Amino acid sequence: WSWRTRASGGKMAESGAAGREEAAEEEGESAEERGVREQVEQLYTFRDTFFQTEGTGGATERQRQLQERLHRVLEAIGSLEGRSGHKASVLLLRGKALNVLPEGSSEAEAALSRAVKLRPELLEAWNQLGEVYWKRGELEAARTCFTGALTHCKNKQSLRNLSMVLRQVQGTAQERAANIMRSVEQARTAVEMDVTDGNSWYVLGNAYLSLFFVSGQSERVSQQALGAYTQAEKVDASSVNNPDLHLNRSTLHRYEERYQVALAGLARAAALDPASTEPALREQQLLTYLSRVSTLVQQRGQLKQKRLTALMSSLRGRELHNHQDRLYPAPSGPPTRLALRPLSSLAPGNNPSTAILGKVVFSLTTEEKVPFTVGLLDGEGTCVAVTVYNMAESWGVLIGDTVAIPRPLYTHHSVEHKDKIFAFGGIRVDSPLLLLVNGKNQSPSSQAAPILAHRPCAE
Predict the structure, then answer these.
(1) Most buried among 42, 85, 222, 305, by the most CB within 10 A?
(2) 167: Cβ–Cβ under 8 A, 6 or more apart, which residues?
(3) 421, β-bridge pairs
């Protein structure tokens, strides 16, 4: 399950313009120096709001205009060099201006490195230098910069940046989990320093999102992530226009099978950032998945009637007899006996005293490999989609296998998006260990932890 942190230059912030730290005004700063500093800030405003304010032009046009503006700003900075008494601050302005571009340039690194050598207490120079390294994927160097800034002064920008780096550091499963917990702590501290900063709330939401996937998909952590995203939008109106917030939140909605809101979030992210292909691609992938599932459920796996009749007949006879007095695995505690009931009797939500029995009539995997989706047909001929999570890559079932599901979590999905309508019944299963397949409990090796997709400068 992948989500994104934007590294498109100049800010390591996981949002757009919201939360960007402006350079502090120097004591004794001249009007010319103040004007150049404002020009640097305007570079970021232009980059981050191009699609909302310009209305026309794609990524190529934005990059062309950004390069033109950067050239003019660098000329203005050049006019200060050698004349300003604030050498370190001028170096910071040069490095920050260059950092508006998506790549971490060696010229920006050189200027910022000189700035922190001249003035080690210059926090923004440390943060900008750390971002240069972060863009290159040099995470330990970035981490050193942000930690170094915090040794000089506790500040929310370094805390946010450190939170993001910690979530991307590779290691064993235990090391990853520990780093994510530390990431949450850094983000919480940033929020505590300024509860009105929408970017800090957004970074905290992403930290909780990471924690959700490495801590057994706790409902409490899910609500904490959604709450942080909501708070970001509440305290900072510009967060509503942050495409990555909508993209990342849709990851959680899709995982929890809230397909309608997931699609709306992906569509919003695509509209806010037309230069990025990822939101539109994921929106189309989800639409394709829903179309395939709803069609296969409706057509009962597209099996011939003779085969369907034989499968239903076996469920009303031998298979029913074999499963009536079975002990069914429980999420916690010892196995228990449950009443076998048809799919048509399921109520929305948990059905704690019930088990359902069916035959597999289709299986379906997605590009993300999770969930593993199967069509389950019961003895009455009702078919639903069963989504299985946290399964090992080697685990699966075949058409014709008998599957029993204790305490089914049932949802009737009804989705309408861009003139497309999908409707089907679904049962969510959080682990294959909860299933009986052909009368057998599943081995511990059939379960695997969720995998977070990692790409350079992305979560």
Answers:
(1) 222
(2) 179, 180, 183, 206, 207, 210, 459
(3) 416
CB half-sphere exposure, 139, CA atoms < 13 A: 15
Which distant-in-sequence residues (6+ apart) come within 8 Å of 126 by Cβ?
116, 145, 146, 148, 149, 152, 158
Amino acid symbol at 314: S
pTM for this predicted structure: 0.85
Q: What phi-psi label fits residue 457: left (phi over 0), alpha (psi between -120 and 50 degrees) or beta? A: left
Q: Who's near 265: CB < 8 A, 6+ residues apart?
A: 246, 247, 249, 250, 253
Residues in the chain: 459
Tens-digit pLDDT profile for residues 265-308? 999 999 988 888 999 999 999 999 999 999 999 999 999 999 99
Structure tokens at 201: 């709330």
Do 366 and 285 meet the contact criterion of CB atoms below 8 Å apart?
yes
C-beta of residue 125 within 8 angstroms of C-beta of residue 115: yes
Task: Report the alpha-carbon distance of residue 42 to residue 46 in Å, rounded.
Answer: 6
Instruction: For residue 415, report the phi and psi dihedrals to the nearest 5 degrees.
Output: -125, 130
Residue of 144, 151, 150 lying closest to 166 (CA atoms) = 144
Gap between the Cα atoms of 25 and 38, Å rounded:
10
pLDDT surpassing 90 at residue 243:
yes
Q: What is the CB-side half-sphere exposure of residue 271 using CA atoms within 13 A?
A: 9
